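Quick one:
INPUT:
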């Protein structure tokens, strides 16, 4: 007799409802097994046939960290396409490569950590490259497209499970693990939450990742907004994955909790479901959860809630239904279609910013000089895969115009480094060394990749090696040997010509020359140590620093001027290396182009007025455009970047990228990096009152377009706006039609212009098409702090149709109904919430308690002012009560008059969360503007008025 095969458990039955399947599997897991699932690397459960599972596969613009893959343009470049259909197709290609790579490497995960929907509020943010736009509408449109591509369109099974990054109000690398973003309610609801909300509501998001920073004094990993906002936007179970190391930060860096057990419990209760901490070692998280359970800080039900959300994702990914999962056999990897798509995306990301005299496109028989530090580079960033194919601007122009018509000068300074004894730094030959590309083999954590030690260290000799020196700004240098390898320092401390490119979590290929006596010390920035010549080779050391004389063999400006003078046109390719001076962990300090590259540009321009500047960068620059006839920008465009740029320069493709963020003219136009009040600080195109270098949505074409026939009508809860666009030029081209609005008679500060909708379309010469946009009336709402909710104000709204936020071709006005403004009722039981101000000066919003609510306090512990407009005191009040902590004085006045009440807390309370009530007489009635002044380190949690 043969034993009967036992029936499959209910969780294996695809005919059952998902909730019942999850219930069945959850009931079969022991508490210890469930606790182990809370770490990023969830172990296998062999007795149930469950495989190991990990959250987190980076896939921002291609599969990252796991070796060769198709590399698409950086996210900000995808944002510059303004093309949701294209971005959806990119997401689809990326998700198919994730599946194909996983089939041969189980380290590749299906829970992808992408896209990043942080708004590009400030152009000096080091991770500007990861976001799509400064505008929440455009960001959510592009993010929704990408997540739909990543998810796939099967009604049940997801190809990958996208997680949005980084929740919330996260735009600074400076002190990112300890800084707090002060976000007033209007900015929270109208700006920072909006990009997340609209993307989640679209239905292709599996979860979110909280950011390292704090918001209003509370770490994002214990944010009540996860429960109060995020989980109310969808009926799907959302998986919240912590950022790497962030759970430990709650204690170790933020000191928000006294113990890791408290911190872990608080994060789990707030809504974090998967803890990314200590790499692959899950023991510490398991021990912390076990400790929290033993101390009564958590219950098994709390653990179940988090595990349920993870299981929901695993079921949707088809893990338990391999025969029904349509994505199981996906094998599309580096296909011809993916290569074409990479080139198409790179072409569509190119933005033509200026083209005086129609210098572009270049004549087919032009003799072209290609110069600049990025002219023969195809740079990758931290979230790129390893290149399978590579195209630099120089290679693209060789291919398109012919190598005989193209001359090249990189513009590096050619230097030797001489010691006091007359010898020079020398790179010893290494003929047997194998070629090696950083990260080609893949790594779960590329931050742990070690430098090469198989190559000989530098030595010295009588002639030395000529190095290519590039200054990337702020004195940060790279030195490259003649064989193309960069000087780098490995763990053993020796200096070698060993790296194919600068890179790594801590870049080991950057140096700084520091004047010293009659020469220079050479400081290695990765270790902070100086270079020292020793008997066993050149190394970095704490002492015995060597003094070098910098011998200039050839200045880069001379080489550039030489080739520029002999050309019909010059292309200067400038920009950034994504691993240097502006990247994750490091914000930029200026919008200015680095001086070395500025000198190259001036040399080219002086030698040849027909100079085109192509900025290839992760972020905007402030450049002097007065003497530049033509200027383009593209983000680092991935594997096809050079081919795409060459095709645009040649006119094979008419540029139609549009700026996804404002390009400011100078650093003076920018607020402080840590000022998150886009409304009060007048940030982004929504509020900026100055003159930008180039406005949001700007981009030129080789064609021309006309707009006509604008109509607008309200029907079925939406505003229907129609107009026509025609190609009046002589080449086929794309146009990006943009629709904006502005409240014409607002009762409070509103955006100067706000994107409602857009569409990228292709038109042949003479072709005309009609566009219609259905704009929900909710798009005209704002967050009314007086009522603590959204409101559409009745009255006139201007509509603008055109080619950018500033290039308006058509306009009209519509009158919408709504709810009129009402005074703020301050005598009700809820009283006055201090963070709901209309105007402020010197205020920081902080946490009222560790779990909920906001309070306000002077940002510098000295003085701050708050204004609340149109407060209704009803028929009369006689008393005011304030809930305060800390120490200091609260002054209350009406309509700007002298204080009517002064409340002083003399002695400090026991801690920031121990509040006491202060009371003072205050007699008034009717409607007034209420002014509050805070003096000293006083935290104000609530103000009540009583009659």
């Amino acid at each position: 007799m043969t034993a009967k095969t036992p029936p499959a458990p209910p969780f294996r039955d695809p005919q059952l409802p998902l909730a019942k399947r999850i219930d069945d599997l959850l009931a079969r897991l022991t508490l210890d097994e469930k606790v182990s699932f809370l770490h990023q690397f969830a172990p296998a459960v062999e007795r149930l046939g469950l495989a190991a599972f990990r959250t987190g596969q980076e896939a921002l613009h291609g599969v990252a960290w796991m070796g060769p893959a198709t590399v698409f343009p950086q996210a900000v470049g995808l944002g510059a396409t303004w093309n949701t259909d294209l971005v959806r197709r990119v997401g689809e290609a990326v998700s198919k490569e994730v599946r194909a790579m996983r089939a041969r490497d189980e380290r590749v995960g299906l829970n992808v950590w992408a896209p990043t929907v942080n708004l590009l509020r400030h152009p000096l943010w080091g991770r500007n490259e990861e976001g799509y736009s400064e505008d929440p509408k455009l960001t959510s449109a592009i993010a929704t497209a990408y997540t739909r591509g990543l998810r796939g369109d099967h009604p049940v099974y997801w190809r990958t499970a996208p997680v949005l990054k980084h929740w919330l109000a996260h735009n600074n690398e400076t002190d990112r693990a300890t800084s707090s973003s002060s976000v007033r309610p209007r900015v929270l609801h109208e700006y920072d939450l909006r990009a997340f909300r609209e993307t989640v509501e679209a239905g292709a998001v599996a979860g979110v990742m909280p950011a390292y920073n704090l918001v209003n004094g509370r770490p994002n990993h214990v944010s009540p907004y996860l429960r109060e906002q995020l989980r109310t936007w969808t009926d799907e179970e959302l998986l919240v994955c912590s950022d790497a190391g962030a759970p430990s930060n709650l204690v170790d860096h933020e000191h928000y909790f006294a113990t890791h057990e408290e911190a872990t419990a608080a994060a789990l209760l707030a809504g974090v479901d998967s803890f990314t901490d200590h790499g692959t070692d899950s023991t510490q998280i398991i021990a912390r959860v076990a400790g929290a359970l033993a101390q009564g800080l958590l219950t098994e039900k709390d653990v179940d809630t988090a595990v349920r959300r993870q299981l929901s994702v695993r079921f949707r990914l088809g893990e338990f239904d391999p025969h029904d999962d349509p994505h199981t056999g996906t094998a599309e990897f580096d296909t011809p279609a993916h290569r074409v798509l990479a080139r198409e995306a790179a072409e569509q990301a190119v933005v033509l910013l200026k083209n005086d005299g129609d210098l572009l496109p270049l004549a087919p028989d032009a003799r072209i000089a290609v110069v600049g530090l990025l002219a023969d580079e195809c740079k990758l960033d931290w979230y790129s895969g390893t290149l399978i194919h590579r195209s630099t601007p120089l290679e693209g122009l060789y291919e398109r115009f012919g190598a005989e018509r193209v001359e090249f000068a990189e513009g590096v300074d050619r230097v030797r480094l001489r010691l006091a004894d007359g010898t020079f730094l020398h790179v010893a030959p290494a003929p047997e060394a194998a070629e090696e590309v950083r990260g080609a083999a893949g790594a779960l954590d590329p931050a742990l990749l070690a430098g090469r030690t198989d190559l000989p260290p530098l030595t010295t000799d009588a002639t030395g090696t000529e190095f290519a020196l590039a200054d990337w700004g702020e004195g940060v240098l790279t030195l490259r040997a003649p064989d193309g390898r960069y000087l780098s320092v490995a763990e053993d401390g020796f200096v070698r010509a060993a790296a194919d490119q600068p890179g790594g979590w801590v870049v080991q290929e950057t140096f700084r020359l520091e004047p010293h006596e009659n020469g220079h010390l050479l400081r290695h920035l990765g270790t902070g140590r100086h270079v020292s010549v020793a008997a066993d080779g050149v190394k970095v050391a704490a002492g015995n620093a060597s003094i070098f004389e910098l011998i200039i063999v050839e200045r880069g400006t001379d080489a550039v001027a030489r080739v520029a003078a002999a050309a019909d046109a010059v292309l200067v390719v400038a920009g950034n290396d994504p691993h240097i001076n502006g990247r994750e962990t490091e914000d930029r300090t200026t919008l200015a182009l680095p001086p070395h590259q500025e000198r190259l540009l001036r040399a080219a321009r002086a030698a040849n007025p027909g100079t085109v500047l192509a900025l290839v960068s992760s972020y905007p620059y402030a450049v002097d455009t007065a003497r530049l006839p033509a200027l383009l920008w593209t983000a680092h465009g991935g594997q096809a970047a050079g081919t795409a740029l060459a095709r645009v320069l040649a006119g094979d493709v008419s540029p139609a990228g549009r700026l996804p963020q404002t390009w400011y003219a100078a650093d003076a136009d920018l607020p402080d990096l840590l000022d998150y009040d886009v409304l009060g600080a007048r940030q982004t195109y929504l509020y900026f009152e100055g003159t930008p270098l180039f406005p949001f949505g700007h981009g030129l074409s080789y064609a021309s377009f006309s707009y006509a026939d604008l109509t607008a009508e309200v029907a079925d809860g939406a505003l229907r706006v129609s107009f026509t666009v025609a190609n009046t030029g002589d080449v086929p081209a794309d146009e990006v039609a943009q629709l904006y609005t502005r409240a014409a008679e607002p009762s409070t500060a509103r955006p100067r212009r706000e994107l409602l909708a857009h569409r990228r379309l292709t038109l042949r010469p003479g072709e005309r098409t009609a566009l219609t946009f259905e704009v929900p009336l909710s798009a005209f709402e704002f967050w009314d702090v007086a009522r603590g909710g959204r409101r559409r104000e009745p009255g006139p709204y201007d509509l603008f149709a055109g080619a950018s936020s500033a290039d308006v071709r058509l306009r009209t006005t519509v009158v919408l109904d709504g709810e009129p403004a009402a005074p703020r009722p301050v005598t009700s039981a809820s009283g006055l919430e201090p963070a709901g101000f209309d105007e402020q000066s010197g205020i920081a919003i902080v946490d009222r308690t560790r779990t909920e609510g906001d309070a306000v306090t002077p940002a510098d512990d000295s003085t701050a002012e708050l204004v609340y407009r149109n407060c209704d005191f009803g028929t009369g009040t006689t008393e005011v009560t304030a809930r305060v902590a800390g120490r200091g004085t609260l002054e209350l006045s009406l309509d700007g008059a002298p204080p009517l009440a002064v409340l002083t807390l003399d002695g400090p309370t026991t801690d920031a969360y121990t509040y006491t009530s202060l009371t003072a007489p205050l007699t008034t009635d009717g409607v007034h503007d209420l002014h509050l002044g805070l003096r000293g380190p006083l935290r104000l949690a609530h103000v009540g008025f009583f009659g």
